[in-house]
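lol ok so funny story. i was supposed to be doing the assay writeup but got distracted and ended up predicting the structure for this chain instead. priorities right. anyway since i did it might as well share w the group, maybe its usefull for someone
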Amino acid sequence: MSRARTARRIAAGAAYGGGGLGLVGVAAVGLVLAEMQFAKRTVGSGLGDPPRADGLYGSEFNGPELSPGPLRLAMLGDSTAAGLGVRRARQTPAALMASGLAAVAERPVELRNVALSGAMSDDLDRQVGLLLDGDRPAPDVCVIMIGANDVTRRMPPTQSVRHLTSAVRRLRMAGAEVVVGTCPDLGTIEPVYQPLRWLARRVSRQLAAAQTIGVIALGARTVSMGDLLGPEFAANPREMFGPDSYHPSAEGYATAAMAVLPTLCAALALWPESDRLDVSRNEDMLPVAKAASAAADLAGTEVTAARGPWVLLKHRRRRRLPAQDPSPAPAPADLP
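and the output, tada:
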């Protein structure tokens, strides 16, 4: 069965209450479990809590003459969204995105990160509640990075997509733009060996495609995490992965942030939009399932709704993040 067809069935099951569709054959389950347990022991986290990066970025753009005030950016998801593996707040992907967004918008950005290390998609309901409950205004834009733990802990893919789409729906109803970084390609992780590597690649890309199909219908955009955002990770794993060989290093997170930032800006109408497709970069207008499958193969690919069942497959150019120190406003004790 093609990935597009499998992803379409997963998304349909999520939307209409199905839950039994698996990502791998039953005969492979025993092998997957044995290999996965070995990989987990090999990886081993041993990392402390990620640094807190909440606060105000781009304060140089603040002032009484500037209105309507700061943009509100929220980050949700798992350890990758939280920035596990780096030591300084400014090295987390959320901080890098906030600082880049402030520079593009020439406007302060207030960041709130509710991502949790180890989270699966069923934790998104709690995270959205933290953002929407209380007297705080809803975020202007949210970035969700989720899916890897769903695969490694064998959450049924229909359930995974159902939790994600429910979270996106709540955020969209609250008026927020949403960008989803889809499930990364777990076949790139160094301690994961064959045949698990092939299976991990297959199931994570299927989930990524299904996530895209599910959230595009709600007006969100997706960016493929793919092989953790580009050939740099495959060519330079020692530099791009952190000390546990599983989570990205500071440079790896910067690569991820630069891939998501153009889509983040486009969602807020801060980035030039064009219906003209660049065929030299394989941009196209495709049915959603076909586009979702193609995006899962190529890291950094954006999928955004066009008209009817058709979506745009875009490869936005990566831009360098600002060189200045993007340290947020909280007290120095929050910035290790």
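The first helix runs from residue 3 to 16. Strands lie at 55-57, 71-77, 109-113, 141-145, 177-181, 221-223, 284-287, 302-307, 310-314.
back to the writeup now i swear
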